[in-house]
Amino acid sequence: MRTLSRTTVIVRRVLDAVLIALIFVVLFGVILGKVVPLTGRQTIIIGGESMEPAIHIGSAIIVAPVTAADLQVGDVVSLRAGDENALFTHRIVEVVDRPDGRWIRTKGDANDRPDPTLVHASAVEGRVQLAIPFAGYLIALLSIPTGVLFLIGLAATLLAAVWLLESLELDSVDRARAGDVATLGPRLGEPMSARPSAGRSLAAEGGLVPLRLTIAEQIALSRSTRERRDRWQAAANERADDPSD
Q1: Are residues 112 and 89 both part of a single domain?
Q2: Buried b (16+ CB within 10 A) or exposed e, 135-147
Q3: Higher pLDDT residue, 174 or 163?
């Protein structure tokens, strides 16, 4: 029983830690997806492997606005280019200043060759300030109703499991205390109410009164007390009337 109780405590504590970690992870995802954009930055999910190993697929990057004059070789930037105006993140490998402005050439770290054309600096969305591995998966999960429901269900399941284990733990503690009282009570001076036979014998003799008495025992105790008082009073009267005293 004690081994089971210790196991219950360990499992409950592990589930507590998992539940707390889940709450913090969800809050972190909400901050990345909803709070960061309020600061003027963007949170972008990396869906390709062109920037491996610097930025892994599934990472979330925080992109801050940058002026054309601040763009330098080695900067990792997110920009829109191509006929579809697709957004991608590559590293600047060349900066070209022309009369119509600054142009840049980019390349993915994992690609063998640079991107085929120069891109005007106005196409740059911003410079990457921070890359967080795997955070993109969390943001994507929080962005769909199914993902939100999944996380809510997971949290509810963990909470129910913790509540159940805590109830089992409390029941185990109560049983252990009851067993200790039953074993050690007589040696530690347990109340007379815990020992019915002793309580009844003392009540019949007019000794200590148990903490718990039935109605019949209370009536018998009152009758016995009155009888002893009457006998004592009668004996006292006889001594008072005896002239030899």
Answers
A1: yes
A2: bbbbbbebeeeeb
A3: 163
CA–CA separation, 106 and 47 (whole Å): 18
| 200 and 217 co-located in one domain | yes
| 42 neighbors 32 (Cβ within 8 angstroms) | no
Q: Is the pTM of this model over 0.70?
A: no
- Please provide the average confidence, as pLDDT, over all residues in the chain: 80
Task: Return the percentage of the chain with pLDDT > 90, whole number.
Answer: 54
Domain residues for the domain of 208 are 192-241
Would you list the DSSP string of 11-72?
HHHHHHHHHHHHHHHHHHHHIIIIIGGGGT-EEEE--SSTTTTTS-TT-EEEEE---GGG--
Kindly report which listed range (64-73, 152-161, 185-194) carries the lowest average pLDDT score.
185-194
Same domain, 198 and 169: no
- State the DSSP H helix or E strand holding residue 101, giving kind and residue range, or none if neither: strand 101-107
Q: Are residues 94 and 79 in the same domain?
A: yes
**Secondary structure letter of residue 126 according to DSSP:** E
Question: C-alpha 203: how far from its chain's center?
Answer: 55
Cβ 15 vs Cβ 165: under 8 Å: yes
List pLDDT tens digits, range 101-147. 999 999 999 999 999 889 999 999 999 999 999 999 999 999 999 99
Residue (of 118, 134, 32) closest to 79 by Cα position: 118
